[in-house]
Amino acid sequence: MQYNLKELPNGIRIVHQEIPHTRLVHCGFVLNIGSRDESKEQEGLAHFWEHMAFKGTRKRKAFHIINRLESLGGELNAYTTKEKVCFYASLLKDHFGKAAELLYDITFHSIFPKKQIEKERQVILEEMSMYRDSPEDSIQDDFDELVFEGHALGRNILGNEETVKSFGQEDFFDFISTRFDTTQIVFSVVGNVSFKKVLQQVEGVLAEIPAKRSLYVRSKFASYQPKTKTLEKDITQAHCAIGKPAYSMYDPRRFQLYLLNNILGGPSMNSRLNLALREKHGYVYSVESNYQAYSDTGFIGVFFGTEPGTAGKAKKLVLHEMEKLRTRKMGSLQLHMAKEQAIGQMAMAEENYAALMLVFGKNLLDKGRIDSLDTIFGIIRETTAEDILTIANEALDPNQLSYLNYIPA
């Protein structure tokens, strides 16, 4: 995978890949700060910061920020995860300079106006209500809390009503000052713009940012105990989550677990869970399994919704498909097809240049490098049926699974 990389004296890195055949440029700042880096009293602050970045800087008001790229047909956005905050944009290549300057402004010069904090507080409270009204979303948050109980990874990225209502201007400045580290910031660019032009636009202003190191160290998760919990909800379907911690992003088996997860309940219609629960029995509209790798641990889980009367049968089918992966060796043709499917999905994902830009930033922060797809494909192609059995017995150990059930009140 060809890309350009420059590290500035203050530690900020600029990564770039030129795509000559597109009209667009995608660029963004990726910061190695997330919701797991909050104290309990700060729960939801990183996500609130993401919102507030658009509400005023030293030289722009909220309207000017929103209108700067939208009036050019571009998109300005942001997201917060457990371990990252990102501010990014997509727009026509001719306007790259405007996007880069605006992103620099909101990332490094937000002033968190007090009046805007009060307005955005209500917006976030509405966002929280929206998620609570969607059991497909809320069960994933509640399941994180169950699996990672007592740890920051288990806290909701959005926070809770008490903390969100408590935040003031100084809370943002204090959080950023203690977590901000210039060696943990990447400006990523993918699109029809040369590396020379990228450096002309951003190198000077980024180099002027004073070098800063944070003394903060993330608390590792190391105290899992399997649990089962049932909650009554004002819903018509029953919803179920089944899962446990899994391999971290530094575990050499993570790509093999990715393959296993894809076989079990990945996005394709021919995943084992979709064939068993939907196609064969009609118990669900959708069922999925997710594998998420963090810096010190990971998570694998299965999620589905069904009629209350079929919830028990659906759960048994999920466990049966897990058992088959643990006890029945895959045939060579079957495994070959699963590998080609996973490889094809990854190749198509690389064609999403906005997502690729974000992956570049994340990988540099997490691993200090960007693995080529050929390297990843090689790991997947070398995976044996015995590897799948071994990893299935670790990742899908029935004695280590936790369960969260939503049932209609």
TrEMBL record:
Task: Specify the Peptidase M16 N-terminal domain's residue ranges.
Answer: 13-159
Q: Which Pfam families match?
A: Peptidase_M16, Peptidase_M16_C
Cross-referenced Gene3D superfamilies, in alphabetical order? Metalloenzyme, LuxS/M16 peptidase-like (3.30.830.10)
| Name of protein | Insulinase family protein
Q: Which domain of life is it from?
A: Bacteria
Q: Which family does it belong to?
A: Belongs to the peptidase M16 family.
SUPFAM superfamilies, alphabetically? Answer: LuxS/MPP-like metallohydrolase (SSF63411)
Q: Which residues belong to any copy of the Peptidase M16 C-terminal domain?
A: 169-341
